[in-house]
C-alpha cells in the first residue's frame, strides 16, 4: 500500500439524525416511525439520543479539532416536513442552516443523507408510507426543498441509507403486517418505490445544482460459501444478489437482474409497477455509491423449503445463513472481523457499476466506560479501523476510484437495537440507556489516533 492517500481524499465521520439529535418535542419537529421506541425493555429511545440538537456547535468544534474534511450527516425528514402536507418547517431549516454554515466556516464539507431509516409518521398515518406510491412524490418534494435551500452549500448528497434495513424493519417503515410472507413481500414493494424516489432525486439535483453529486448508500453484503461445494457457492451468489445487488441494480441501472426478477416472480413478490416507471428508472443515474461495511457473512446450500419468518431478506431465500468458523468474533461483532471483506465487496461493486465510491460507514462496536482517569482506551477500535483503512489504501493503489472514508460514528449514538450499551464513536457521550447524565463529550484514544491519520493523510507508522 502506498503510504499517503491522494490529495483531497475526504477523511470524514458519520452519524444519523435520529440516532444523534434528540429534541423530539422541539423546533416544530413531527413524529417519526423510529420515535415509537424499539420495543426492548431497558433500551433507550432517541428522544435525547446524543443531544446533538443542543450541542451541535460543540460537536463541530470537535470535528474541526479532529481535522475532518467531511461530515456525513442526515437530515430529519420529519423535522423539515413535520406534517402530511409536506410543508417545510422554517425552524428546522434554520437549525440545519446553522449547522451547515458552521461546518463550512470550519472547513468541513457537509455530506447530507436525505433518508436514514426514520420515516415521517404523518405519512404512514396518511397513506401507509413507502407501501403507497404517493410516497414517491412526497420524497421528491422533500428532496427538492433540501436541494434548493442548501444549494451551493451542500455539494455531496446521499439519497437513502441502507435500503435493505430501511425496508425490512417495521420500526423504520411503520408496516404493521403480521403475516411473515406478506411482510417480506411488502419490503420489495417499498424497495421498488424507494428506487423510483431515488431516481426522481437524482434528476432533481442534477437539474437544480449541476455541480453537486449524489448517490445511494448500500450496506454491502459480502457473503462467503461455507465450503467449496458448488451448491454452497451458488447459495452465496444468490444471497449477495437478494441482499445487495437487486437494490443497487435498481438504484444504478433501473432494472432487476434476471435472477432477482425470477426469484421475485416465483415467490409472488414482484412489485406492482406503472407504465411510466420505466422512463423514471432509466432517466437518471447516480454519481457515486456510498459503501457501508462492518463485517461479512457466510451461507450454505438450502436443502429445506423456505420458511418465512426471519428478518427479511436474511431470513428467507435460496440460501441459509451460517457461522463462519474462520473469523474472530467479538461481543458486538458476531459475524466476525474481516477487513479483507471490505476489499472483496468494493471490488465487486465497482466491477458491476464502474462508479466512484466512498466508505460512508465502517466501525467497531464496543462496551465502554471511562477508566479512573476519565480516559477511554479503545485499542480494538484503532486496530479495526487501521486494518480497514489499509484495505482502502490498497484498493486506491490498484486503481479503484475511492474518494473518501467515513467511520461510524463520530460520537457515540443511540444504537437502533442496543441503545448506548453498544458504542461506535470516536468521541464518548456521557450517558447510559437509563441515565442521561451530562451527555458530555470525551475524546477516546481512537479520536487522537484518527487525528494523526488525517493530519498525515496516511496510516501512522
From TrEMBL:
Gene3D superfamilies: Glycosidases (3.20.20.80). GO terms for biological process: carbohydrate catabolic process. Keywords: Glycosidase, Hydrolase. Its EC number is 3.2.1.21, 3.2.1.86. The active site is at 361 (nucleophile). GO terms for cellular component: cytosol. It comes from the Bacteria. GO terms for molecular function: 6-phospho-beta-glucosidase activity. Belongs to the glycosyl hydrolase 1 family. PANTHER family: 6-PHOSPHO-BETA-GLUCOSIDASE ASCB-RELATED (PTHR10353:SF122), GLYCOSYL HYDROLASE (PTHR10353). This is Aryl-phospho-beta-D-glucosidase BglH.
